[in-house]
Amino acid sequence: MLKQIKGLHHVTSLASSASKNNTFFTEALGLRRVKKTVNFDNPDVYHLYYGDEIGSPGSVMTYFPFPTKSRGTKGTGEVGRTSFAVPVGTLDAWANQLSDHATNISRDIRFGENRLLFDGPDGDSFALVETDDERTPWVSPGISSDMAIRGFHSADMRIQDEGASAELLKFMGYTEIDRDDNIVRFAVENGYGADVIDIETIPSADDAHQGAGSVHHLAFAVENRARQLEVREALLDTGYRVTPVIDRNYFWAIYFRTPGGILFEVATNEPGFDVDEDSSNLGMALKLPAQHEHLRERLEKTLEPV
Length: 306
Fold this sequence. Notes:
The protein has five helices and 16 strands. By secondary structure, it is of the alpha+beta class. It has an eight-stranded mixed sheet. An eight-stranded mixed sheet has the order 6-7-8-5-9-12-11-10, covered by helices on one side. The longest helix is centred in the C-terminal third of the chain and has 14 residues, at about 225-240. The mean pLDDT is about 95.
C-alpha cells in the first residue's frame, strides 16, 4: 500500500463561460483566483484556478472554460459531486449566500455530516459539508472568515462496480471508514485536510458523457517529484498505464485511468503557484507557458475578459 499520497490536490472540470465561471467561484463561493493561464494542449482556452490564499493542495478547483460548450450528461464513470468543507452551523448563511447564484439547492445528511447540495452555472454538482476543519480560509468581500470555505472535503466517484476502484483506493493508501447502502467512504491518514473519497455504486446507470459541468480529472497530492516517481513506479508495477511526468509549471503531473473510467492525476506540491508571480498578486495577470508566450498578443485579444 502506498504511503506517499496525502489526499486531494485539485479537481479539474469543464465550463462553457470563463466570466460566469470566475464570478461563481470568486463571488458566490468566495474563493481566490490563484492563477489565470491557458490549457497547455489548447492555448485558446483558459485554465483558471481557484483556492485559498496560496492555492494550497486540497483547496484548488480548476476549470477549462470552452466557449459555447454543451453540457455534459451525468452518469457513471465520472466524479459526480465535489464537496467543500465549511464550519459547523454555517449552512443557513450559505443557503442565503447562494440563493441568487446556484440552482437545485437542498440539504441532506451523509455519514452524520450536514450538507448543502447545489449546482453551479453549468449544472456542476457541489456540496458544502459542515466539519471542524482548522485550515485557514481565503476571506473575500461579503463572506466572513467564520463561514468561508476551508478547502475540499471530498469527491464522489460514481461508478457501476465498486470492486476494482475500491481496491485501487486501498492501494493508494485509503482505508474504508464507513458504508451506507450503495455509498462507501474512504479516507487517507495524515492528509492535508481533503482526505475523503466516496464511491457511489449505481449498477444500472448509463455512462456519463463529458461536457460543460463535468469533472475532467481528479488529482491527488504528493510532496515532491521523488515521491511522485515512487507512486508512478508502483502503479506501473501493478499494471496501470501511467503517463510520463509532465511539467505543468505549478506542479508536475502523471495521469492514469481508473477501472471505473475516471481519470486520476498525481500532482506534486512543488513548486507552487507563486513561482511566476508574487503571492499578493496571484491570479491577476495572464500567465502563459513558455511554449505559448509567442501567442500572447493574439490571446489577450481573443480570450474572454475575466
